[in-house]
Amino acid sequence: xxxxxxxxxxxxxxxxxxxxxxxxxxxxxxxxxxxxxxxxxxxxxxxxxxxxxxxxxxxxxxxxxxxxxxxxxxxxxxxxxxxxxxxxxxxxxxxxxxxxxxxxxxxxxxxxxxxxxxxxxxxxxxxxxxxxxxxxxxxxxxxxxxxxxxxxxxxxxxxxxxxxxxxxxxxxxxxxxxxxxxxxxxxxxxxxxxxxxxxxxxxxxxxxxxxxxxxxxxxxxxxxxxxxxxxxxxxxxxxxxxxxxxxxxxxxxxxxxxxxxxx
Length: 263
Prior knowledge:
InterPro entries: FliR, T3SS_IM_R. By secondary structure, this protein is mainly alpha-helical. The chain contains nine helices and two strands. The chain has one domain. Helix 1 packs across helix 2, helix 3 (69-107) runs antiparallel to helix 9 and helix 6 packs antiparallel against helix 9.
């Protein structure tokens, strides 16, 4: 007859529950996995499957009741770690979406907005297009698997312990958040530069021929130039997108190391 003590049962529960919490934290925020169009049942099933694979490889865990105040504190910490790692990768996609917003507003397509299921907000058509483009590259290059691999490695870089995580990791997230603006400007720079020259030319034309209706000819020209520049730049966007996503994966690793508690 097999008998289990309460201590052994608590150890089994903790060895599965704590890794599962970190995994679900990342899945709920990270690109693709955290999309609101993905059913919650699928996310939970994926998290349980990953936890069953990763849990046996996790380093030794603190010997405590997972339902005790200290055990619940560890649970909250694991959730914060997973959310932080997923958010670091989400920033990459936010930077690309910002590039689309800048391009669309400069083209005069700011009024052409759609409902974005990812953020549950309104976003421009160009932003939606670039977001879908980087998502396809994300999947085709198997970077979503690299994200899961980084998550598995995080249990070695940042083992589950009862010590408080370092606040330095959260400062690293704040610093990394600035990449949204720099990436957005860099990716949209060719389109913005071409549209700036177009607007300057239209301004000179308006001064030379005041009888021309700038609103009648300006919008079609800027929208047309914008689409032409997007078509020209599009073949060259794959490498910047991949490099940006690689930066996001590196940021996940840096943030994980920075979250390690001080001894």
